[in-house]
Structure prediction request, 148 residues.
Amino acid sequence: MEDQKNQSDNSTSPDSHRDDTTTPKVTGIGGIFFYSDNVQGTKDWYTKNLGIEINDWGSSSFEFRNVNKPEEVGSLQWCPFKKESDHFAPSKKEFMINYRVQNLEGLLTKLKENGVTILDDVASYDFGKFVHIMDAEGNKIELWEPKE
Prediction:
């Protein structure tokens, strides 16, 4: 009986709440994208008034460190798109959020099991893997698993 009590107590130790890096889930925001009537004017306004610097790709990168792994640097992308762009299609919304995820393949399996609409195949780049889905409100969502 004492052994069972000790095992039970150990299950609620702080170590048992460590994040499993293989659990398929969102870990943060990877980017915020929105439509603009005047993309260059919008970028200029944000630079002039809020100090947001635009990079060579036409967006801005906000860098941060992972609290649990301070040596790991991540970034959040910010970028306006031309209102006429179909970048967010089939969504009719004015924005798209990119979520950072871990275990993208496992997450896709879970999403398919739950009947979530997957819009495309996983695309791989030097900086990670991407796929697009639709949420229940018709918002296009970009999922990004950064390359380690």
In short: Helices lie at 2-10, 39-50, 104-113. The first strand starts at residue 25 and ends at 36. The beta strands are 25-36, 60-65, 73-82, 95-102, 123-125, 128-134, 140-146. The chain has a mean pLDDT of 87.
